Amino acid sequence: MLKSILFLFLFVFGLNLSAQDKKEETAFFIKSIFENTMESGECYSWLQELCTQAGPRLSGSVSYDQAANLMAEKLKQIGCDTVWLQPTYVKKWTRGEKEEAKIIFGDKEKSSVPLRTLALGNSPGTPITGLRAQVIEVKSLDELDSIGNQVKGKIVFFNRPMPAGTLKSFRAYGATVDQRSRGAGVASKYGAIAVVVRSMTQNIDDVPHTGVTVFYPERGEKLIPAFAISTKGANLLSLLLKKESLRLFLKSNCQLDQDSTLAYNVIGEVRGIGKSNKIIAVGGHLDSWDVAQGAHDDGAGCVQSMQVLSTLKMLGYPPRNTIRCVLFSNEENGLAGAKAYKKWSDENGEQHIAAIEADAGGFTPRGFTCEGDTSIFRKYFKLVQAKMDYLEPYDLYLKPGGSGADIGILKSQKGILMGLSVDSQRYFDYHHTERDRFEAVHHRELRYGAAALTSMVYLLDGINWESP
Amino acid sequence: MLKSILFLFLFVFGLNLSAQDKKEETAFFIKSIFENTMESGECYSWLQELCTQAGPRLSGSVSYDQAANLMAEKLKQIGCDTVWLQPTYVKKWTRGEKEEAKIIFGDKEKSSVPLRTLALGNSPGTPITGLRAQVIEVKSLDELDSIGNQVKGKIVFFNRPMPAGTLKSFRAYGATVDQRSRGAGVASKYGAIAVVVRSMTQNIDDVPHTGVTVFYPERGEKLIPAFAISTKGANLLSLLLKKESLRLFLKSNCQLDQDSTLAYNVIGEVRGIGKSNKIIAVGGHLDSWDVAQGAHDDGAGCVQSMQVLSTLKMLGYPPRNTIRCVLFSNEENGLAGAKAYKKWSDENGEQHIAAIEADAGGFTPRGFTCEGDTSIFRKYFKLVQAKMDYLEPYDLYLKPGGSGADIGILKSQKGILMGLSVDSQRYFDYHHTERDRFEAVHHRELRYGAAALTSMVYLLDGINWESP
Q1: Are strands A155-158 and A194-198 parallel, antiparallel or unpaired?
Q2: Does A220 touch chain B (CB under 8 A)?
Q3: Which of A336, A366, A410, B259 has its CA 20 to 30 A from that of B204?
Q4: Residues A195/A199/A205/A206 CA torsion (nearest 10 deg)
Q5: How many CB pairs under 8 A join A and B?
Q6: Are B207 and B435 in contact (CB under 8 A)?
Q7: What is this structure's pTM?
Q8: A170, A444, A445: which to substitute to probe chain B, counting the most B Cβ within 10 Å?
Q9: Closest CB to A444 among B425, B448, B451
């Protein structure tokens, strides 16, 4: 409370400060953000509640609703001016009973080797007795195109590894994830009856990584069963295929509802003292895969975004613009939350002068990447870059780059869009697996990221965006 | 092999390249360093061998000798021009039988509460039956000075926490470690019979952290028993002391040999094509505390330094200067290894134009801090800074700052001294505890650090230090 009054005092009377004094005040405020967040940020305990009380929470599930209510409650406790649940409609996908994958030896299935597997999100189930077919290995969609109808009636095995030599793990992911996201759809056009995909990780281990696969029926694609197998399993299968032709047995029980289910975006805001339609948003996605507690992906980004509001409130900061925390639904398998939010925001005549997404795991932050409509990007980038000296003591950079899956579509509102960039070396140990649990997040790394986000929001709020 | 020839070709014929071509060649070589190290760097498996085959290795111990031989063997396999063991003489300290600490309630010791504890390095043992005395809490050496002789015959309890609000963990450590390193010595002058010290970590848990304590008998200090207790234990003791006066029971069986024991520095080098006395050294310390596998502290720094030579050899790089990997003995409790190395180097008329120490844990690197004799520092800093664009894609900074405990004394040779700076948020989960095991190091983070070191050594080797 004392602190709140102190800062309110500083800000109200700060209007007459000299340029040098203002710089010192800004640096001091950022120091306070870091000290307070590192010492007593609540984000870590919120994450624990989210992961253990709501748990895995694919949008449309009961636990997703629990998570939404839990987080809304926290946002109210923080002291937001408004907290609300925004309806979005999602296609609910369920995994059903545990899936199975086996390598079958011989025509009469005399022996088999089980493969650790997870069905891919949005994929359909196999027949109830499973399916058996010859498996053909390819390294890429291009290779699949080159062999085309040879895969008819067969199972396609996509086995291009995420390159270990690529330092930045998200870049390695980006270079290989097409196999998972589009492999099944493309293979179906050539008559394949199922696909298995090497898991998206640079590790060699026995942990399968799920993730969404996307079908375009309007392009003639059929929904066929799709599975991720572990990297060890993929290596084994590939090795065996060098010696002989093999069949796989696959069984899954997934279901994708055709009806839409309600799943809420959770939104809290602190209103600015300036124009009411100018927004600075910070957010993550509240949904997670059904096999994971979603601690890194993306409970971390959610609780860090909530921490932004909490710390600014606690320090008594009166924002110029409306600062809004948005927890999106359905990032993992449809982006319905992002679309609903954008539509609503447009209809209300809002402009997001800035939005930041935190969806790369709760690891030590390295900085921010940013993008924006070409009409404003160079100018806005320079305005933010001019503030980066304040973040130098905290080792945070600003670079052009992507923002996030949920906020990317806000580009038409002509603000600057940012992604919190974090150390990515451990991310694919956890991503879309049962290992993505609360214990995998470090309290100090999570808080460091939250302090970075808060500082950036504070700096963005201090920029005169109309300046020539 | 193909690669070796390729790079040799590039380097031999590279002498006539244009400035732009040279820049591209340098960038390409650094890219190769990162790709090769991340994909197939051996440092991670070397670390596993060091941690599990030699294990805990305080200098003077049998396992230290095993570690020295093991690492020397690896340096030979790498293909160093010379590998040798350099004798250094250390005072061997042993913990002996497991130590004990208890809070005693009442005069007749009707009840007691055990505290998790580790004796501090270089401290003497208690009497064989232990010791019992009243405990007095202080927060600092200054507070101890202010109460002075009141501690006579008593146990001093140092309880100033490592501040959680301080983002950079080493800074928080630096602000509090005087209690551990000097508390016992200073308390002995006021007649205290023992000390207990709150463990050096920002966590609140039940893990005691050992570390060295230093006595100066020449200043009238006596060697008295000294213990670290866990932060939870410290909080409990402090809470109880607010209500009543308490005694502690302390028992330890430590011994510090008066005779010197042989403990080798391990050195390997690849000779340069230029003057033979110009050295670029990279190193860490091979000794670890007796309770720890010393994975982060500092097996990581050792194997990363070895990786530098291995990668440069593998890529066929012919260095201008002699590139040397030095694994120091006795960093933890005496620095005898560093002193012996410096003396030998001076006697041989060498100049370390640059030296880098890696001793902050095997975490993701953030950059390099550097220092040097004032007569050369500004010039040398600028020469290195001019190369930092090459490391920008790998998110590595260069800042003025400390180098390392082992190489700091090389300053008189008037080269630039650097420390590999890494993400420090998790370091004090492990530092000087039984938790500092191989499993605590991530393969990609370790390799990232090794690639950073290799790239810096390569850049340093390319600098014309004589330039005006």
Answers
A1: parallel
A2: no
A3: A366
A4: -50
A5: 62
A6: yes
A7: 0.96
A8: A444
A9: B425
In angstroms, rounded to a whole number, what is the distance separating the alpha carbons of residues A244 and A154? 15
Which residue from B323, B325, B308 is spatially nearest to B278, judged by alpha carbons? B323
Closest among B174, B172, B178 to B142, alpha carbons compared: B178
A431 interfaces chain B, CB cutoff of 8 Å? no
b/e for A243-281, b at 16 or more Cβ within 10 A? Answer: eeebbbbbbbbbebeeeebebbbbbbbbebeeeeebbbb
Given a contact cutoff of 8 angstroms between Cβ atoms, the answer to whether A440 and A296 are in contact is yes
Amino acid at B429: D
E strands within B121-200?
A: 131-138, 155-158, 194-198
Helices (H), A85-148: 141-147
Q: Does the beta-carbon distance from A39 to B165 stay under 8 Å?
A: yes
Q: Where are the beta strands (DSSP E) in B57-188?
A: 82-94, 100-105, 111-114, 117-119, 131-138, 155-158
Q: Which of B152, B203, B219, B208 is closest to B180 using CA atoms?
A: B208
For A164, the closest of B38, B164, B426 (CB atoms) is B38
CA distance B286 to chain A (A): 26
Using the Cβ of A423 and the Cβ atoms of chain B, whether some distance falls under 8 Å is answered with yes
Q: Which two tokens stand for residue B87?
A: 């004798």
Query: Using the 8-state DSSP alphabet, how is residue B196 labeled?
Result: E
Q: Residue type at A116?
A: R
- Helix H segments across A99-168? 141-147
| Nearest CB partner across the interface for A425, out of B35, B166, B364 | B364
Q: Is residue B364 within 8 angstroms of chain A, CB to CB?
A: yes
Question: Which residues have C-beta within 8 Å of that of residue A452, sequence separation ≥ 6?
Answer: A365, A367, A368, A391, A394, A396, A420
The residue in chain A having the minimum alpha-carbon distance to the alpha carbon of residue B367 is A395
Q: Count Cα atoms within 13 angstroms, Cβ side, for A26.
A: 22
Residue type for A257, please? D
Residue-by-residue pLDDT tens, chain B, 468 positions:
445 544 555 555 555 678 889 999 999 999 999 999 999 999 999 999 999 999 999 999 999 999 999 999 999 999 999 999 999 999 999 999 999 999 999 888 889 999 999 999 999 999 999 999 999 999 999 999 999 999 999 999 999 999 999 999 999 999 999 999 999 999 999 999 999 999 999 999 999 999 999 999 999 999 999 999 999 999 999 999 999 999 999 999 999 998 999 999 999 999 999 888 999 999 999 999 999 999 999 999 999 999 999 999 999 999 999 999 999 999 999 999 999 999 999 999 999 999 999 999 999 999 999 999 999 999 999 999 999 999 999 999 999 999 999 999 999 999 999 999 999 999 999 999 999 999 999 999 999 999 999 999 999 999 999 876
> Are residues A448 and A380 in contact, defined by beta-carbon separation less than 8 angstroms?
no
Name the phi and psi angles at A111, rounded to 5: -140, 160
What crossing angle do the helices spanning A2-13 and A19-40 adopt, rounded to 10°?
160
Q: At what angle do helices A300-314 and A62-78 cross, to 10 degrees?
A: 20
From the list A167, A366, A429, the residue facing B38 with the nearest CB is: A167
Considering only CB atoms, B35 lies closest to which of A165, A423, A445, namely A165
φ/ψ of B202, rounded to 5, equals -90, -5
The answer to whether B337 and B330 are in contact (CB under 8 A) is yes
Q: DSSP for B26-66?
A: HHHHHHHHHHHHHHH-THHHHHHHIIIII-S--TTSHHHHH
Identify all chain B residues contacting A167, using CB atoms and an 8 Å cutoff: 34, 38, 394, 448, 451
Backbone angles phi, psi at A322, to 5 degrees: -75, 125
CB-based contact B426 A448, cutoff 8 Å: no
Contact criterion met (CB < 8 Å) for A167 and B202: no
Q: What's the complex ipTM? A: 0.95
